[in-house]
Design a protein that fits this description.
single chain; alpha/beta; 6 helices; 29% helix; binds adenosine-5'-triphosphate; nucleotide-binding; ATP-binding; P-loop_NTPase; ATP binding; transport
């Protein structure tokens, strides 16, 4: 099953095209890297996929699940630092959007996600005191709360050290394998993309291509 179908998508700002006639499909359980030089339109595409930005032309269709419900999308942002005095613990941060009503089942699912993302021992620490990699794992945990079918990582590993990058992406791969979550990973790190994803979408000014990432020649990507 295709989770998402993108057809003839174009976005322009004030008449200036960012990208034009982009078409691709993402299969359920697939892992795809979104690559391309700075400014080529990766974040703009992600904003359209997240339905935060209306495309100029074309459309994005999300499939329905077997139970008729729409596909749920989770989002893990680019790393940005959180102040040392940020007033939430890791656990409270993860359940930030849950409102006040927390059923027993909900609490169990929060605890399960905390375990899955290896945050158990620091769940009561203040968010502001975590390392960059730990903060990104907390963002990932937050994205998992709604039980997404599809997660988008927008350069989520940028500025993490090599160990933290591997740890975050190993977790993502594990979630892909155990929960069949479809993954779209925007990145400049082709080595990481090759290690943790199967497919790619390579955006270039005025064109794009798709394929198997193992065949992608990384010297083609400038920064
Ligand atoms: N709201 C907006 N209004 C006008 N121009 C915009 C807007 N959002 C993005 N752009 C422009 O669209 C182009 C693509 O930006 P985008 O952030 O999507 O690129 P990117 O591939 O994600 O880059 P990076 O790798 O640096 O994150 C840039 O030239 C940017 O200045």
């Amino acid at each position: 099953m295709d989770v998402i179908t993108v057809k003839d998508l174009s976005v322009s700002f004030e008449g200036q095209p960012v990208f034009e006639d982009l078409s691709f499909k993402l299969k359920e359980g697939s892992t795809t890297s979104l690559i391309g030089q700075n400014g080529v339109g990766k974040t703009t595409l992600i904003r359209v996929l997240m339905q935060m930005l209306q495309p100029t032309t074309g459309n994005v269709t999300y499939s329905k699940k077997e139970n008729g419900e729409p596909i749920k999308v989770g989002y893990v942002p680019q790393f940005r630092n959180i102040d040392k005095d940020y007033p939430l613990s890791v656990k409270n941060f993860i359940q930030l959007n849950a409102g006040l009503f927390k059923s027993k089942a909900y609490k169990q699912s929060v605890n399960h996600i905390i375990q899955e993302t290896n945050l158990t021992s620091i769940q009561n620490s203040s968010m502001g005191e975590l390392s960059g990699g730990e903060k990104q794992r907390a963002y990932l945990a937050q994205a998992l709360i709604d039980n997404p079918d599809f997660i988008i990582l927008d350069e989520s590993t940028a500025s993490l050290d090599p160990t933290a990058k591997l740890s975050l992406m190993s977790l993502v791969k594990q979630l892909n394998e155990t929960r069949k979550i479809t993954v779209l990973f925007a990145t400049h790190d082709i080595e990481l993309a090759k290690e943790f994803t199967e497919d790619y979408i390579f955006m270039q000014p005025g064109s794009y291509e798709t394929g198997k990432i193992k065949n992608f020649d990384e010297s083609r990507v400038g920064r």
